[in-house]
Amino acid sequence: MTQLTPTTAPPPVPEAAGTIEHATGPGRRRRGGLLGWFRGDGPHTLVFLLPLLFSFVLFSWKPIVDAAVMAFQRTNLITPPEWVGLDNFATVLGDPLLGAAVVNTLWFAALALLLGYPVPLVVAVLMSEVRRARGLYSALAYLPVIVPPVVGALLWKFFYDASPNGVFNTIVGWIGVGPLPWLQDQATAMPSIVLFATWSAAGGTIIIYLAALVGVAPELYDAAEVDGAGVWRKVWHVTLPQLRGVLLITFILQIIGTAQVFLEPFLLTAGGPANSTMTVLMLIYKYAFQNSLGGDYGAATALSIMLAVVLAIFSAIYFRLTKSWSTS
Amino acid sequence: MSSTTTRAALSGVALLSSAALLAGCAGAPAPEASEGAPVTITVSIDAGLEKEARDNFDARVALFEKANEGITVEAQEYTWTAPTFTTDLAGGTLPDVFTIPFTDGRGLIANRQLADISGLVAALPYADQFNPHVAQAGQAEDGSQWAIPIAAYGQGLHYNRTLFEAAGLDPDAPPTTWAEVREAAKKIADATGEAGYATMTSGNTGGWILTTLVNAFGGRTESADAAAATIATDPAVRDALEYLHELRWDDDAMGANFLYDWGTINQDFAAGRIGMYVSGGGNYGNLVTQNALNPDDYGLTVLPLQGADPGLLGGGTLAAVSPKASPAEQAAAVKWIDFYYMAKLADEATAVETAELAASLDQPVGAPELPVFGEEQFAAYQSWIAPFVNVPVEQMAPYTENIFDQPLIAEPRVATQDVYALLDTVVQSVLTDRNADIDRLLADVQTQADALYAKAG
Amino acid sequence: MTDTRTTRSTRRRKDAEAPDRGILSLADWRRRRVRVTTRLTHLILLVSLFVVGLGPILWLAKSAVTPTQDTLRQPLALWPNGIDWANLGEAWTRVEIDRYFFNTVIIALGVWFVQVLVATTAGYALSVLRPRYGKVVVGLVLATLFVPSIVLLVPLYLTIVQPPLLGQSLINTFWAVWLPAGANAFNVLLVMRFFDSLPREVFEAARMDGAGPYRLFRSIVVPMSRPIIGVVSVFAVIAAWKDFLWPLLVLKDPAMQPLSVRLPQLQQFIELDVFLAALAIATVIPIALFLVFQRLFLNGASLGGAVKG
Q1: Are the beta carbons of A206 and A142 closer than 8 angstroms?
Q2: In whole angstroms, what separates CA B220 from the centre of its chain?
Q3: What's the pTM?
Q4: Per residue in B10-23, pLDDT tens?
Q5: Model confidence over C149-163: pLDDT tens digits?
Q6: Which CATH number fits domain A92-322: 3.50.50.60, 1.10.3720.10, 2.170.190.11, 2.30.30.240?
Q7: CB proximity A327 to C under 8 Å
Q8: Does domain C96-269 have CATH number 1.10.3720.10?
Q9: CA distance linking residue A88 with residue A35, whole number of Å
Q10: How far is B87 from chain C (nearest CA, A)?
C-alpha cells in the first residue's frame, strides 16, 4: 500500500471516524446550511454517487417496489394494469403445481445440505494439513467452480444417460452395479441434480473454509495439547468452534441459495420427470415466461414475494437462534 | 419451449406445395401505383441463414421493391415463440410479418393479437383455393382468414432402416398396424439393445405426440365443438397410454431415456439409438443437415390408423401480420407474403428457382409435405421441382403413397399448448413410474383442462 | 470481524515457515502413525480431487475430438477409431462458436466496467467523502442484500422492456445486461469496507495539500485500491461468464447471445461430437484464465469468505 508522507503542514488532529474536512485546519466546524453544502464537497459527492444512484434506483429499488405492486395487479403490457387485490396470491396458492414445487425445493435443499455442507468441511480440514503443494489441491478443488454451470449441466446431462453405455452407468458397471436410471426416474432425478450442483459449487465452499481454517490461532491448539487433547479432540474442541462464524454464515447462505435453484433442474430435466424436479423458481419462470397467453406477471411476482417473505422469516428465526452461538 | 411445428417448417428452404392456380396468377405482382406515403415494413427471416441463402433473400427483396414502388422491406432475424410474444409486441421488437405454427394460430386470432387482414386475403386470386383443412388453422370463428397458411405437413412414423435390418425386419415393409409397431419395437430392442420405439415427452411435445397417438387410435382430446376437453372421457386416450405403458414396462422396448423433446429425439434418432418415433413428416431436412443422419438409414411411413374415427394430426406454418401495423403496412405486408411465401408454391418459375438454390446449398428438396392448395396443383408442383429432388424418395414411399388416404385432423383449438403441457406430465409419469395410475392422472388433467376451457370462455 | 491484513500476513507467515502447525503439532507429526495416516489420507484426497475435479474436464477434452458413435458406444475408451479433429473446426465455424464467445467476452467486459465503476465511486463517496445522508444510502443498499434476486426478475425484465425515460426497449441490446449489473450491493459494501480500512491520514494530508475530491479519487484512492478492484473484477467476470437466466430473458436474438444461453439451444441443431467440441471450446478460456490468475481467483474467493466471517 502506498503511503504519502505529509508535506509541510502538520497533520490535523485525528477526529473520530475520520471525516474529511475541507482543508480549514483542525477544530473548525463544517460550514452549515445549503450554501456550505454547495461550497463544500456536496455536489462532488453527489457526482460520485451518481453511478450508484442510477443503478440502484432503476435496477434495484424500483423493481423491488414494482414487485410489491405488481403482485396485486394484472399486467399484460398492452392495457394499463388493473388492481386485483389478492387474486394473484389465490391463483398461486390454488395451483396444483405449487405443492410439488415447494416439496421439491425443500427436498433439494435438504439433499444439498446433506451432501454439500459436511463434505467441503471435511475436505477443507484435510487440506489444511497439507504441507506441500497445497495450491494444487486448491486449484483442483476450485476447478469445477470455474466451469460455466451451463457447460457443466449439459456435460452431466450426457453423463447421466440412462442406457447401459452412458458414462456413469459404465463406471458403476465396473463395480457391478446395474445401469441406474439417474434423471429418468422420479425418485433418482433430484438426487442426481443435487450431485451435479454439489460438484459445481463445493469448490467455493472449500476455499472459504480453508481460509478460515488457516486463520485459527495456533496457540489454541497448543493450549489444547497441553490439556492432553488428541487429533480428533482438537478438531472438535478447537477447529470447529473457531469456525463457527463461517459455518453459520455458509449454512444460511446455502439455504437461501438452494431455495432459488433454477439452472440445474431447468437444463437437466426441465422439471421432469412428471414434475418431480420442478422447483419454486421454475414455477415463477413458468408463470412469467412460459405462458402461452403471454406472461402472468402478477402470479410470478406474487410467488416471488411469498418466497422472499418465507426466506426472511427463516433468516430472522435463524439469526435469533444462533445469536448465542456465533462468535462475531 | 420449442415450437415444434415452427421448427419443422423452418428446417429446409424448400417448403413447397401446390396451388390450383392459373399459370400466371402468382409471382411478380403487377406494379403498384403508389398511393399516398411510402411504407416500410419489417419482415422476419430465419436466423443463421447461410450466405447464399441470405443473398438470395436480399435479391428477392430487391425484386419486390422494384415491382412495388413505395414499399421498403427490412429484414429482421426473428423466431416467434408463444411466451415472449406479448413482450415482443409491447417492446416493439415484433416484425410486421412473422410466421407462427398452426398450433397457435386460432388462439392468437381469438385474442386479437394478429392483424385482421381477412379483407386483403380475400382479394388474393387464390383465396378460395386453399385446402380447407389447412386454411382453418388461420381462420377466425366466422371463417375469415386472418393468417395465410404457407406450409403444411402431417405426422408420420420415422424408422431406422439399419436397425430394422439388424432385427431381421424388412425395411421396405414397415409396420401397418400398432400391433406390428409393438412387435417391431420389441424385436429391435432385443436384437440391438437400442430403443425400439421412443416418444417425445417434454416441452409440450409430449402432449402433442400423445394427441397424435390418440387421433390415430380413433379418439379425440377435444369435443367436436371445442367446448370441452375429452381427455378423461374418450377411451382412446387411455388406450394410447396403456399402449405406451406396455411398450415400456412389459416389452422393455423403449430404451432407458425418456425426457425427449423435439430436438433431442431427432438427435438420438440420427445417432441410431431409436428404432421408430412419431414426429412431423418433414423432419428429414433437420435429421440430415443438422443431426448428421446417414440418409441410407432413413425410412418414413404413415401412422397406422385404427378405431372408429381415426385421423392424422396435421400441422403447418402460417404467415401473420402484427396487430400494430397500420392499414398501409398491412396491405404492403400481404403483398410481401404473396410474393415471398406463396409464389414458391404457385408459380413454376419461382418454384424452380427456389428448389435449384436449395439443392445447390445441399438443403433437402422434396421432403414430404401436404398441399396448401389442392392435390392436382400439388402434383403439378412436384413435377416442377422433380429435377432438383435430392431426398431418398423410395425410402419415403410408404408415407407419400398413403398420406392422401388419411383424413386430416386439426389440432385442438382451445388452450392447445397448455393442455399439451398437462399431458406432458402424464406421459412422463407413465414412462417413469411402473405403477402410474392412469385413470387418476387423466382425471387430474381433465379437471385442469376444464378450468382452462372455462377461462377461455 | 476478521482483519484482512492480519489474515494475509498470517498466511504469508505460514507459507514461509514450513513445517508450521495446523491441527497437528510438530509432536504429532513425529509420531509415525499420525504421519502415515495423514499422508495416506492426503494421497487419497489428491487422487479423489483429480478424478472428481479434473476428470469431467479431461473427458470433455477427449470427447471433443471423438466421433459421435464412439462417444455413444464406448464413452470411456480413448479414441478406438481415431481422433476427429474436424469437430473443433466445425464447432468454430459452422456453429459459430466464435461469435457467441465474442459476445460472452463483450458482456463480461461491459459488466466488469460497470461494476467497478459503481463500486469504486460509491465506495469512495460513502466511505471517504462521507456525506451526511450517507447512512441512509448505505442502509438502503444493505437492505437489498436481504431481498432474493428472484423478486427482481420480472419487474426488472419489464423495466428493460419498457424503460422509463427511453422511448424504446433495451431487449436485444447488451445494455440490458450491462446496466443492471451495476446494482450489486455486495460489491459496494466490499469496497466500502476496504476504503474504511485505509488510513485516514493519507486523505487528510492530500486534502491539506489542496487536492479536490476528484484528484483525491484519481491519484490516491484508486491506486491504493488495486487489491479490492482485483477482487471485484474477478467476481464480476466470473459472474458474467456464468450468467444464464438473465441473458436468456433479455437477449433473444441469437446473434447477441453469449455461450451460456446459446449452448443449450444449440444442442437441438448439431450432432453430439460437434456439440461436445463446442462445450470444450466454451470451457477453455475460463480454465485458462484460472490457471494463469490462480492466486487472484483463490484469494478473491477466500477473501469473500473472510469478509463474510
Answers
A1: yes
A2: 19
A3: 0.85
A4: 444 333 333 333 33
A5: 888 888 999 899 888
A6: 1.10.3720.10
A7: no
A8: yes
A9: 50
A10: 7
